[in-house]
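Ticket reopened. Same input as before:
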Amino acid sequence: MSFVLTCPICGPREVTDFAFGGELSSRPKQPPGFRELCEYNYFRRNVAGVQREWWYHRSGCRTWFQADRDTRTNEVLRVGLPGSFEA
Amino acid sequence: MNRLPPQPGERIDRNRSLTFTFDGKPVDALEGDTIASALFAAGRRTFSRSFKYHRRRGLLCCSGACANCLVQVDGAPGIRACTEPARPGAVVEHMNARPRLDFDVMSITDRIGGPFTPPGFYYKTFKWPRKAWPLYEKVLRNAAGLGTLPQTQGERTWKTEYRRRHADLLVIGGGAAGLAAATTAARLGADVVLVDENPVLGGRLLWEGGHQLAAELAGRAQAAGVELLTGASALGHYDGLIAVWQDSTLHQIRSRHQLFATGAIEQPLMFAGNDLPGVMLSGGAERLMALYSVAPGRRAVLVTSSDRGLTAAVRLRRAGLQIDAVADLRETRSAAANATASSGVELLSGWTAVAATGRRQVQAVTLAPVASVAPGAGPMPRRELQCDLLIVSGGDAPAVSLPSQAGASAAYDADSGTFRLAPTPPTVSAAGQLTGHGGVRAAGISGELAGLRAAAALGLAASAEHDQRVAELEQRLRAELTEADTEAPPPPDCGDPRWGRTFACLCEDVSAKDIHRGVEEGYDSIELCKRFTTVTMGPCQGRMCQLASVRLIARETGQSLTAVGTTTARPPWSTVPLGALAGVPLEPAKRTPMHAGHLELGANIKWAGDWQRPYDYGDPDAEVKAVHEAAGLIDVSTLGKLLVSGPDAGLFLDRLYPNRLSNLKPGRVRYGVLTNDAGRIMDDGTVCRLDEDTFYVTTTSSGAGAVEQWFSWWLADWGLDVELTDVTQALCAVNLAGPRAREILSRVTELDISREGFAYLDARQAPVAGVNALLLRIGFVGELGYEIHAPAAHGEQLWEALLAAGAQDEIRPFGLEPQRVLRLEKQHIIVGQDTDSESNPYNAAMPWAVKLDKDEEFIGKWALARAAGGAAQATLVGFKLGNGQVPLEGAAILDPAGAAAGQVTSARRSRRLATVIGMAWVPAALATDGATVTIADRGSRLQATVVTEPFYDPGGELLRS
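Engineering reply: fixed in the latest deploy. New output:
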């Protein structure tokens, strides 16, 4: 699995420059029950399609940013700093 | 020396000789020789024994394509002698033959083993009686495989360097076409990389009389700015990235466009005894003569299915080789065939070889008309000719594997009898003989054309001139091709089993009959037949045998070759050591500023992650004793160090840690355990408040990166007004510990370090030995101590000053091992050793680290609130054993029934306490002070006593002194 990912600060790099931070998930707002807590900690949607996810530029500027990537083709549709995507 | 007179373009330097050994005997060689060329010149004809039948094999391709010359060089198995340079003092050994290459006991399998080793024999034979299987396995295991690996391995002598290269255009193949394409694109402004597996660029030009042209073409490419990598094999295509292996560097090349000029691979012919030493491809014979000035034989017969063999014959004869007869599979004579006949050589048109015979090597060849080889064709007129060299040329199969991996497809072309590239994806193109444009002129035009098209695809050449040039080249190419070579696809199998085996796959010893059997047994598709017979699965990866296997399966199943198709092309295409793909890569070794000092003091340095750290300074027991009785100094610069500052800094830390940090007063330090949302321990360290808005956080050495990543992620998510600065490498740190620590420190600082002025868990900033420092009174090692943090540039000065100041008290530097003993005496955990990903602060016996009543909701609170209420299964406790065995870390704790119910995480002998101490996870019911637990350690059962408070100074009075 190898593709090019563009860091919003540094520009395009091999994906191995980065650490994957998982899909965006929403943290429970109220203290969750056991089931909800376990789902938050251990379950992922893991879509076969476009996924919004976290990336960390560990070999470079060490910025956390987000990307929209199609998990079937590894095509990255867009990258941006947190908060720069519309909800 | 057995060399020909100097050949133009020869690679050897006749003035520089060298010697290597083969199976213990010295072999003379010249600089520029390969191991094979030197051995051949010295008279060797058998280079290896085949995989299954241990048949003699000799040089066939001389180009690294087949597997006939695999040898072991300086202990490394699987080296192709025909491309490996001869080096002085190299120790070369044969593989796969015992006791000697020329007398191999296992060749008995060739004589009688056939019925026991048909394809897939391991599913059919050696099964009965079942009890005998362990014996069969032992025998087969010894018989299988090629070469031997050393039983032990010392420090690796090389490490892989990984290199990333992004380019506009990658050209794979540095022959006439590849060089033309690369030069053309580079002149138009493309950033071009060209890779070629041979040591010199030029491909076939080099041994077909065009070495000067090759040098010229290479020079033009270099002048145009192409990055040229020689001795660089392309391994395969991985998601748009091509891996190329060169010496000990793995180039990972990603380009916007890929141009394949990989040429074509000369194919052998199918006849009985086609694997005998002395059967050589025309290209192999030409390389031996032209590059190494070695005569491939004395009397030769040449059999060819195209003009390639005929033009080779002209050059070979010019160099002095005697060719007694030429058999051309084509009935109709081409211009080249007529020329051959006129030159005085006997030419048999429409004839082919049906058998090669000889003891140990070719001594005679039997020729027959092609038409008579067909089944049901009646009696066969035959000619038998004596020879010691049988040159064969069965057509050129385009090397489509790499472009296929990149997304191109290959289709069968009936005219040439080979598989040709079909249209390629938009970012992939091809040129030269690979696309059927062989011959130096056609290849050059084809390459230039491909270069122009690639440049256009890259957006570099949009002009009328460009289109004009393309049209011109296309016309010239068409003209070249109308005069092109005619080929006659050879019959699938011209051999009669009565004369011996006809091999389809030399690497795996698969004969035509084996393919027949495989199809007969029902494995009648190429993918199934390949897996069942293992044809094409050897070191040559189908270079010599894929086409032959497709022809045979087509014949057996009655299908067309198009219907049969080829198997999926997969990487690696070229041989590559495992270390290239999975070994430890070159990485910067991290050393602290005091490293030179440690070496001077005689430290035993070991790796701790990617840090080089002192393990001890020669006497760990004495170092422990010094810390207890006088003073010790340890370099802890490797600790992670983070500055967290801003108006929201306290809030930020309160949300991350399970305990309260926002109420920490400036000048105070607190121990913190970091938990994740499942309540599990991630890391531990200290948090010190420097002022209202600034906190200084330390982490474990190995967790520094992960904690920084964790902190910055939450910061990015929460968007608080906090700045995070990683100062791990900007600052160094030392821990001065022991009863004399205060006295020693007072000699190098003006700071009030009295017990009242600088209490336990205080933090102070002051110069120490002239260096601005942050001092933290904390105690990982259990004695009065000061952790001193300072700018890294002053580390050596600080270290030396403290050792000098403590000399009169007999201060000792101490390393990781004594530190481990000391911290264990205090039951201070090491995250990752005493804890794992299931450990939380409750079952790790640190409930005081969690403040559930804290105002701010912290990460892990939800899970810890549940854990606080529930019953723990296993708990971390300390234990002691009488002064006997030190259990291995990882030894099992047994429950009363004798089942494993926990494990020992740390264990050491404490001289101070005169007992063995340790920490272990034990069932909750046994986690009470004084309980007895059983440890299963290397066959013994040890009875240990649980101790739930620190072994040494449980009240912590020494720390607070």
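The two ends of chain A are 29 Å apart (CA to CA). Residues 34-42 of chain A form the longest helix (9 residues). Please confirm and we'll close it.
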